[in-house]
Amino acid sequence: MGCPLIEQPGQTSDIQDAARRHLWGHFTKMDTFQREPLPIIVRGEGNYIYDQNGHRLLDGLSGLFTVQVGHGRRELAEAATQQSATLAYFPLWSFGHEPAIRLAERLANLAPADLNRVFFTTGGGEAVESAWKLAVQYFAAIGQPMRRKVISRHYAYHGTTLGALSITGVPSIKNPWEPLLPGAIKVANTNQYRCGMCARAGSCTLACADDIEARIVMEGPDTVACVILEPVQNTGGALVPPPGYWQRVREICDRYGVLLVSDEVICAFGRLGHWFGCERFDYVPDMIVFAKGVTSGYAPLGGVIVSDRLAAPFLEDGRVFLHGLTFGGHPVSCAVALANIDLMDREDVLGNVRRNEAVFDEVMARVGELPIVGEVRGCGYFRVAELVKDKANRTTFTDEECDWLLRGVLSPALYKAGLFCRADDRADPVVVLSPPLTCTADELRFIGDTLVTVFTDAWNAFASR
Ligand SMILES: Cc1ncc(COP(=O)(O)O)c(C=O)c1O
Question: For a substitution probing ligand 1, which of 62, 157, 262 has the most ligand atoms within 8 Å of its CB?
Fold first, then answer.
């Protein structure tokens, strides 16, 4: 029996009206959808999504860098159903359950070197914070309690909860919350197109990697716990590091006894054609942070894969990692992750990415010839086009022009043309592509054709403004 004073719940209004009145969007301009209909996605099938009006779009962003194997996979839904019926929930607090144990084993087998132990969370930001806490507690345990600081890169996004936000380097989303946690230091990123250090001088000396060393020395090496970096940084636009960058960073970390954390929330599970992004660039971190693609988004899950060396002190003297989450390593999510990894293996999804890289290169090279595109970047199934108003001088658009171009012109035009992707101006304006790893060569060509048409129209519209 419901409470007599409250009306019975139900669908009392039109869905747009309900959204306008009750839904709070994430990073969403709420005023826009007070005036205009909110796009509502109702169904996904393969590499496509369908909105409320039956409009079909190629999911060029895998939802949010997440749906590696495409939509509507029955076997992932069935894995969830079966696990819910067997054991829907139990925590990992002094207990175990089969899906988490088997998944931890599976991830340890996939991860390089001695990254053998997994701490599960529910998503990426929590995993980033867990890695930082783990580094701090590890150093306390081995008698170096001053090592608490964390180094990350300008404009890198590592999550929004206050610990992860301290590590995030995007000023516009950090500033309202300052002061954030102390000891979260920022260094140069690997933006070679706008490198203010060495690349534009004609030869790259890896000054961006050396910036990490300079900061460690300046802070005092015995105060720095870890460096957290993405294999390819998303914000700023698929910033692929120059050759040798990761080897230099690894050397620097080793020289000063600092831990190296690879934030692979986007770059793992095939996005760069390997299980983990670090394999692509041939380095071995001390921890790998993952989320998103581990379940292809069919259930929420994240975590940290930790080396045996870091785990060792936690296996002694009744020591406890002072950290936990009710839903970390949820049994249903772990069962889905296992089914997702099985599916990726069986269908050789990583092989599909690697086989189609050359096609994606060609597609993007064509886009890169347009006058509005300053540079195309990225690798695997993770690409961007950076937009400029003067290609020769690499001049970017003003904030007002960006707003007009990205939100007023490109996003609606791409949507109408049947391509879902992301126009992002948290740093310089880019259009980001991160399609399902099951996309075919023809679907990649469709992405290219659509971008060429929509960008050309936008450029003409800009010129005649
Ligand atoms: C590299 C990286 N780290 C961390 C996060 C935060 O993950 P979540 O949104 O699951 O908290 C993201 C999210 O996009 C990310 O891209």
Answer: 157
